[in-house]
Amino acid sequence: MSDEGLTEVFMKGYPYTWFKSLGTPRAVEVKLDRALANAYWLRMFPNVMVENFVAPASDHYPFLLKKEEPQRIWVPRHSFKLEKAWCVEQGIYDIVSDSWSSSAGLQFMYH
Could you give the residue ranges of the DSSP H alpha helices within 1-111? Predict the structure, then answer.
């Protein structure tokens, strides 16, 4: 696989794809099946993944190659920016602390 430049596509769900003798002391589960892609294909489809499912009537678990929609990141229209020159002002630390607390989880830029 690596000689051909292939890597495994990320698999979501149960990590094993084949089983034998489940429910017995001799039970075995392994990852036999996998999806492979080269770097070029993965760049074309950056949000692709394999979702693994359970199959009650087979010893191989089926999986589905899916292209997930990219996560949308909310970016505020106006963000708080701290200018270094403000640090000499009286009470600046209280102002920054209050502003920081009210914008928890938002992006912080330091200039």
Answer: 39-44, 92-102
- 0.70 cut: is pTM over it? no
Question: Is residue 70 a contact partner of residue 47, using CB atoms and an 8 Å limit?
Answer: yes
63 and 51 Cβ atoms separated by less than 8 Å: yes
Distance CA 94, CA 108 (A): 16
Query: Where in the chain are the domains?
Result: 2-67
Q: Rounded distance, CA 37 to CA 2, Å?
A: 11
pLDDT tens per residue across span 29-75: 898 888 999 999 998 888 899 998 877 778 888 889 998 776 666 66
Strands 81-82 and 109-110: parallel
Q: Which residue shows structure tokens 């000689």?
A: 3
Note the pLDDT tens digit of each residue in 66-86.
987 766 666 666 665 667 777
Bridging pattern class, strands 48-52 and 63-67: antiparallel
Residue 100 to residue 50: CA distance in whole angstroms: 39
